[in-house]
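The instructor's notes for this session suggest beginning with a concrete chain rather than abstract definitions. Hand out the sequence below and ask the class to guess, before any prediction is shown, which regions might be ordered.
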Amino acid sequence: MKNKIHALGLISGGLDSTLAARLLIDQGIEVHGVNFKTGFCITTARRQFRRRAQQSPRIQHEASRVGRDLGFPVDVVDVSQEYLEIVTDPRWGYGKNANPCVDCRIMMLRKAKEMMPEVGADFIFTGEVLAQRPMTQHRPTLRQMEKQSGLGGLLLRPLSAKRLPETEVERRGWVDRERLMDFAGRSRKPQLALAEKLGVKDFPQPAGGCCYLTDPSYSRKFFDFIKHLPPGRQVTHDDFNLMKVGRHLRVSDRLKIIVGRDEAENDFLEYYTGGRCTLRPVDLMGPVVIVDGDVSPDELHFAARVLARYSSGRGQPQVTVEVECNGAQQTITVEPLRPEEASKYILR
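After discussion, reveal the predicted structure:
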C-alpha cells in the first residue's frame, strides 16, 4: 500500500460524511475536508439569523466541528455566487421542490477535484448512501455525477462501497474494501448503529436535509420569484435571503410584499431595506414591511393596509404607518386589511 494516502472529503457536518471520514481515518488515511457554502444552508442561515437578532451566542459551523472532533482540517469555501447561476437554470433540472441537487453535487465534485493538488489528495470521498435520496443517490445518477465531475475511479463512497463497483482507489490498495460499508436505502438505523460502535456521539439529528431549496414553503416563494423575474433583472443573494423569513404576499406580476412575523424577523428585514420601500407602524407594535418591486401610490396604500392587518392595531378603524421610499418619508393613515383579503395574496 502506498504510504501516506491523502483523501479530500465533502463534509457537510451531518452524520453520513462524519462516518465516511472516520472509516478512512481508521484505515490510517490522512483526511482533509471541504465544505462548500452555497448560501442556501438552513443551519448557516439560522446561525446568522440568531446572531443578528442577538438571541444566541455564536454557533460553531457543523463541518468545522467534525474536523475538530476527528482531528483533520476543514476548508469552508464560498461558492454562492457561482451557485446563483446553477439554481436559477439547472442543466439537470429540479427535484421535488426547487432543489437542483444533481447540478449542485457535480459542481461540488468538480471544485473538490480542482483542490486535490493543493491539499495533496489522492482521491475524493463523500458520505453518500445508495438509494437514500430520491434525486441524487440512485446508481445511474451516482455514475452520471462521477462522469460529469471528471473524477473517474477516484471518487469513493465509503458507506455504500460494497454495493457499488470497485473504484480505482480500492484496486490500488489505498483503502481496504472489506472495512468499508454496504449501506443502502433511506433507513438511518445502520448509520446510527455504526456511530454507536465507533463512539461518534456529537452530530445533528437527521431532519430532512440542510438546504432551503428542499423546503416546500421556500420553494413556492422561489418559483414565484423566478416566474415574475423581469427580463434583464440581475439576481442577487438578497433576493433569496428575503425568502427565508416573513409572510410573502404576491400582489401583482411586478409587486410583492414581505411582512415580518416577529421582532427577530423585523430586525432581519432591516438589513434589506436599501433600494426598497419600507413601511413601519407608528406608535403601535407591528411588522416591518418591505415592498419589493416598482410601486405606485395606490400600491403603497395597500401595503400599509397589509401592515395594519398584522399590527396590534388590527382591530382599530385606522392605523398610522410610516413609509420610506427612495429616501423620502411620509405617514399615511389606513384601514387594516381584512383577514380574508390578505389570505388571497399569501404564498403558502
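Then share the key points. The CA atoms of residues 153 and 168 lie 5 Å apart. The mean pLDDT is 90.
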